[in-house]
Structure formats: structure tokens, C-alpha cells
């Protein structure tokens, strides 16, 4: 396919990723519309992270293509900086720069990748910190913050690039239970504001409140796709049913 469908925010066609003889992602195709919030569930090792990481080229596909709007992620001629601008990613373990303050963590990419003047980047960063409820933490260092606060900084940092799509890979899995809600609340606000999101998570509350679509992956493939109600209350596939018995 030379061009992706015009109204997609993210287009994935026949995405395949091998690690040696292992097929981590096996011929996955997916259309994501602007503003859509897709939740990806599935057992450990089913290829969820590899699929997300392929969308911002942390992994190169072995086969297949991915676009953000009309920009090809998988074309090696596409500048990695463009991809870093268009796609924000939040990881399980926050990945903040430990030697930088919260404010500097957030302004780093906009000033170095996008060449936004420092003062302007700092102003944006302070707005974003306000949005995630951490206006008073601008001058703190990551290790002075709780896990939930660090993850909210990581979200603000990703948003600072003004991305077209946000990827979340098990954003609450490393958090103590009392901190999960503060992170999910920020994610739900983002979803309400119309951000396009792909989220790997087994948080049912988020799924029901914010996801339009749930995808169940197993062995590198999309086994079943549907609304949260379809998938959680009325799954069609045996593999989906068996998996849900473990997590619900
Ligand atoms: P999930 O996120 O669903 O747990 P992953 O995408 O992390 O699954 O992994 C899918 C499969 O690919 C697993 O079998 C995993 O061990 C393997 N895998 C992931 N990354 C690598 C890598 N860098 N090298 C080799 N195998 C990998
Ligand atoms: Mg994973």
C-alpha cells in the first residue's frame, strides 16, 4: 500500500516482528481514527509491547508498514525526529532522566528536538504540570517524587511535544494501588479531550470509562476486537474467554 487511508490517525498494515525464529508480532493490521482510545489486552509475551514500540520505531518491523497520518514510520527515510514529535510514549517504569529536574525533564525534547526557545518550553511545561496536578513539583528531582507523581511527569513530558498519538505501555503496573487512580484520572482526562491513545493495560475501570475499542492479542496476533462491553461481557473467542477468567 502506497498511502494509508486518509481519515486514519494511525494505520498498521501486516505488521510482523521476528526476534530470530520467534514471531513476536504476527501480521497485525489496525486502523486508529483521530480521538480513538484503544485498549490492548493479552497475556504476557503476546506482543503488546513490541507492537506499541514499533509505532514509534523503538523496534523496526521485519515486515509490514505503519503510518501516523500520512507519514510512514516504517520508511527508513522518515526522520526519527518527526516520529518523536508525533508519537508520545509512557512506559511502565517512567524512564525519567534522574539527573534533571521535573521542569528540565519536560523541556528537554521540545528544546533539543523541536528547537523551541527555552522560555516558551518552560511556560508550556508549567501548564502541563498544572494539568497533571503537579504545579508545585517543577524544581523537584524524580527520586523526590512518588511513583504516581513520576508517572504523571512522564505523561506531561510526552505531551510537551504536542504529539498526535499517545502510547501507554502498562502505565500503572509498577505503581502501588493507592497511586493508580491519580494516573488513570490524568489518562481519562486526556481521552476526554480527544487525544488518540493506544493503551496496554488491564485496568478495567479505565477500559470501561475511556476505551472505545478493546483488542485482545495472543501469540502476536489480534484475536478479537470489540467494544469494552462486547469483549468483557460477551467475548466470542475461547482464547479471549480463558484470558478474561484470569484477570476479571
Ligand atoms: P508483551 O508486551 O505482550 O508481554 P512483548 O511484546 O514484550 O510481549 O514480547 C513478545 C515476545 O517477543 C515475547 O516472547 C518476548 O520474549 C519476545 N521479545 C520481546 N523483545 C525481544 C527482544 N528484544 N529480543 C528477543 N525477544 C524479544
Ligand atoms: Mg509488555
TrEMBL record:
Leader sequence segment: none
Keywords: ATP-binding, Nucleotide-binding, Transport
A GO molecular-function annotation: ATP hydrolysis activity
Residues annotated as domain ABC transporter: 10-244
Pfam families: ABC_tran
The keyword Isomerase is assigned to this record: no
Similarity field: Belongs to the ABC transporter superfamily.
Protein name as catalogued: Glutamine ABC transporter ATP-binding protein
Source organism per UniProt: Spirochaeta lutea
